[in-house]
Amino acid sequence: MSNHYGNEAAQYFRLPPMPVLRSSMLQTPDVTITRLTSTPGAVNLTDPIPPENAFVLCLQLQPLPRHELWLDGKPERVTPYARGAVSVVDLAARPSAFLPTAFDCLQFYLPEASLQRIAAAEDCAAIRELAIPHGIQDPFVATIGQLLLPALAGNTVPQLFVDGLLIALHSHLAATYSGVRVADARKTGALAPWQELRAKAMIDAHLEDGLSILELAAACELSPAYFCRAFRRSTGLAPHQWLMRRRIDIARDLLERGTLSMTEIAISCGFADQSHFTRVFSQMTGGTPRAWRQARQ
């Protein structure tokens, strides 16, 4: 375990370990999302944060009526934050904060190396700065945060789902706050037949262990953001939705054969456990795996 801020954000706020979601799509310091919550008076002054080349994007899940912020030892002008407020700090500026009130927020740790790799995959300039006014309301970032909350609460979600959200977030931040030109989504076409076949075959080959958006996009010779949009246009589903549908298709076949246990089917189809399998199967078919099997015996 490295000592990057993203791995241990809670300790700088003198908080116990908090829920952390990591992206495994990059062979660099992970992009991480941490949910930090505190009661009044539990934090007060944060511990010194070692400087590093990374941004921390913060989304407030409840109002933050009072706080103070210092960058490079100098006070930064801030105002109370409403629910949904977004702000960013550059960890190279050695930030510290005074937080005497209760708070609940998401922190997106965005290391420079990861931003560079995403930019390279997208064939665009890397994000060098984020000109985000303190406390701005950004419905797009708020939506991304809300979609990630179930995963942070411990629910199992496909890595393709997390990857897709982070790719979308990168495109939004680059275009809105960094002046980086990104591909126009309106100009995105569907996948070529060979690209669609290759992507579907790769997903089928990795039902159990999964794979990343970057891997799928590279195999189709497309940028990740373009691939996600083109895949949806071709199939009517996002990559992670297609993955879950294929897992359920294979599970149905195995259930009808009747030779494997529920747990064996769950693991072989890439579900975390039998409970996860049953929950997803029921959501997608309207009945439990056991009922499905019994109806066909």
From TrEMBL:
This is AraC family transcriptional regulator. Signal peptide: none annotated. GO terms for molecular function: DNA-binding transcription factor activity; sequence-specific DNA binding. SMART domains: HTH_ARAC. The lineage of its organism: Bacteria, Pseudomonadati, Pseudomonadota, Betaproteobacteria, Burkholderiales. It comes from Paraburkholderia lacunae. InterPro entries: AraC_XylS_family_regulators, Homeodomain-like_sf, HTH_AraC, HTH_AraC-typ_CS, Tscrpt_reg_AraC-type_HTH. It holds the Pfam family HTH_18. Residues 197-295 form the HTH araC/xylS-type domain. It comes from the Bacteria. Keywords: DNA-binding, Transcription, Transcription regulation.
